[in-house]
Amino acid sequence: MEKKRNGQLVIIGILAVAILFMSIGFAAYSQRLNVTGNVTVKKATWSVHWDQSTFEAATGSVAVSKVSMSNTDVSFTATLTKPGDKAELKLKAVNDGTFDAKLTAVTLSALGANESKYLTYEVKYGSTTYDATTTGLTTALNAGASEDVTIVVTYTTPADSADLPQEDVTVNLSASLDYQQA
Q1: pLDDT tens digit sequence for 164-177
Q2: 13 is in which domain, residue-wise?
Q3: CA–CA separation, 115 vs 21, rounded Å?
Q4: What would you measure as the largest C-alpha separation in the chain, in angstroms?
């Protein structure tokens, strides 16, 4: 019995030594990898505006005068004297912000019933022409990009010459381009 007990103690001792060597061997073959980093988040800016340095005010047959401009507003004056006269104002819409933008609507003031007989009014945005209010647009203006915008007012010849104005008429026109974050 004593012999059996001594044999068990020897086996237990051998197993203990084997477990000790196995744990040392496992520790020798394991490694932890770490990652650390610093992230800087720059401030976000929204800046869709008119480029005040690149507008052209006299590209039609009639000179555009009295141009007044800020980052978001432009006003001008033009005198159309005869059918065929056209006034154009070329602008550039710029996105200097950090967010992409999208043009969602172009709103044009409607011409009165009499004025629409001898006057057309349109906004060209890139390669698209708008001659009436248009909503539901998703035209991209990415951060750092710009787009050409041309305002065109044309004195047209009406079908009936009696529809021509009999005295000077001042027509107040307006257009707005609505942008949202893309």
Answers
A1: 999 999 999 999 99
A2: 1-33
A3: 99
A4: 134
